[in-house]
Amino acid sequence: MQSVKIGVLGLGTVGSGTVNVLSRNLKEITRRAGRDIEVARAADRSFDSPKGCETDGIALTTDAHEIVSDPEIQIVVELIGGTGIARELVLEALSNGKHVVTANKALIAMHGNELFAKAQEKGVTIGFEAAVAGGIPIIKAMREGLAANSIEWLAGIINGTGNFILTEMRDKGRDFADVLAEAQALGYAEADPTFDVEGIDAAHKLTIMASIAFGVPLQFDKAYTEGISEISQEDVKYAAELGYRIKHLGVAKKTDTGIELRVHPTMIPERRLIANVDGVMNAVLVQGDAVGPTLYYGAGAGSDATASAVVADIIDIVRSLNTAPENRVPHLGFQDDALIDTPILPVSEVITSYYLRVHTEDKPGVLADITRIMGEQGISIEAILQKEPEEQGGIVPVIMLTQQVVEKNMDAAIAQIEALASVKNSVMRIRVESLG
Question: How far apart (Å, rounded) are the C-alpha atoms in residues 40 and 58?
Fold first, then answer.
C-alpha cells in the first residue's frame, strides 16, 4: 500500500520534534496506523542554519504555498503559529481537499468555527490535540473517552510559564518580577510574556476545551482573562496559612443560566491533587456526571511532548482516510448541527468564593465598617485573619475568605470598602474554587 505523504509547515521546536518522533518510532507508528507515513515535504522561512531534525530525503522549500497545493500531499501539518499566514495556509489546504493537523491554539480558538465549516464542506479533518496542554491527550479524552458524560465543569493549569512562576514564588519566597526574568532566561517565557502571564494563552486553550465539553461554538472573545502579575509574596503566604495554594487556573462551568469561561489566579485547597501540580507541568481536572472527577497530567509544552500529540493526530487521520466523513469523530465532539449557542456569562454573573486582602489603619471600628458593607451586599465571611501592625498605629492587613457570592455583589462591596478613609491601597481579590 502506498505511503501517506505529509507536508510540514514550520521546522521550529515542534516541527523538528514531529519529524524526529515520526522517524524514531516509524515501525511502531506504521503498526498502529496500518500504512507508512512519509514526511515528503517541509517548509520554513530559512534553511541557512541547521534544523533540530534530520532533513535528508525531505523536499525543502521556503514557500509553504507549494506544499498546500501539492497534489501528492494528503496531510498538511501546520506548526507556524499565529493567526495570519497560518490561517491563510490552513484554509488553502482545506480548500484543496487536504487534511490538516495543527498545534495552533490561537488559530483554533479564534477561527476554528470557520475552519471546521470549511473542513466539513470539503470532507476532510482538522486534528488539533497538540493545541491544548501539549502532550496531554485531553481533547481525545473529552471528545471520545468521556462521550457518555454530561460534563459539569473543568479546571486546568494550562500554561506552564505561569505555573512555574507561582511555584517559585511559593517554594522559594521570590517575587513575581524576579521569577519572570528567570523564566525568560530559561526560555519558558517570551521576551513579551503577555500571552502567558496575563492569561491569553490559557484562554485560547480553555475556549477549545469548553466547546468540546459543552457542545457550543468557539467563543474566545467572551472569555474573561486576568493575569498573575499582581500576586504578591504576601498573598502566597496568607494562602498557605489558610490551607490553600494559588494557581493560574482556567475554569469552564455549566450553570442554569449559561457557561462560565474564565482564566484568573485561583486559590485551591492544598489537598487537591491539581494544587500540587508544580513547575512547568500542566493538568486538567474534568467533572463528568457519570464518571465523576478525572485528572489529566503531563508536559504542556516542549518538542517531543507536543510532537507526541501532533503525530497521534496524524495517525488518527491515516486510520480514517477510507472512512466516510459523516462517520468520523466530529471536531468538537458533537455533531456539527447539534452545537447549541449557549450564552457565555459575563464575569459579573459568575458565582464563586473569594479571598480578600485589605490594608487598613490600625484603629477601632474599621473591621466593623468592612463587615457591615459585606453584610449589606449579602456576603457571608467564612474566615478572617487580622494581622498585627508592624508598628503602633500602622497599617494592618485584614484577610478574609467569603462564601459563594455573585461577582457583581463583590464588586460593589469592594468599591465601598476602598472608599473608606481608613482603607489604604486597593483591595486584593483572588477567586477561590474548592474543585470538590
Answer: 5
Per CATH, which fold does 4-135+303-338 belong to?
Rossmann fold (3.40.50)
The confidence score (pLDDT) of residue 394 equals 77
* Greatest C-alpha distance within the chain: 84
Name the CATH code of domain 138-297 (choices 3.40.50.2300, 3.30.1490.100, 3.30.360.10, 3.30.310.50): 3.30.360.10
Tens of pLDDT, residue by residue over 22-79, are 999 999 999 999 999 999 999 999 999 999 999 999 999 999 999 999 999 999 999 9
The total number of residues written for the chain in this structure: 436
DSSP code at position 243: T
Looking at residue 369, the DSSP 8-state letter turns out to be H
217 touches 115 (CB < 8 A)? no
C-alpha torsion sign, points 266, 269, 274, 280: positive
Residue 262 C-alpha cell reads as 474564565
**Alpha-carbon Rg for the chain in angstroms:** 24
**Which residues form the catalytic set?**
205
Q: Are strands 281-288 and 151-157 parallel, antiparallel or unpaired?
A: antiparallel
Q: Which of 338, 108, 293 is nearest to 218 (CA)?
A: 108
- Superfamily of chain region 349-432: ACT domain (3.30.70.260)
195-205: pLDDT as tens digits: 999 999 999 99
Residue 221 CB-density burial (10 A; 0-12 exposed, 13-18 middle, 19+ buried): exposed
Which backbone phi and psi does 322 adopt, to 5 degrees?
-100, 10
Look up the pTM and report it.
0.95
- Strand, coil or helix: 106: helix
* Strands 75-78 vs 4-9: parallel, antiparallel or unpaired: parallel
- What letter does residue 345 receive in the DSSP assignment? P
Backbone angles phi, psi at 157, to 5 degrees: -90, 100
How far apart CA 163 and CA 246 sit, in angstroms, is: 9
Is 307:17 a contact under the CB 8 Å cutoff?
A: yes
Set of cell numbers at residue 242 = 489558610
Helices and strands in the chain, H and E counts: 14, 17
What is the tens place of the pLDDT at every residue in 209-232?
Answer: 999 999 999 999 999 999 999 999
How far CA 51 is from CA of 47, 79, 430, in Å, comes to: 8, 14, 44
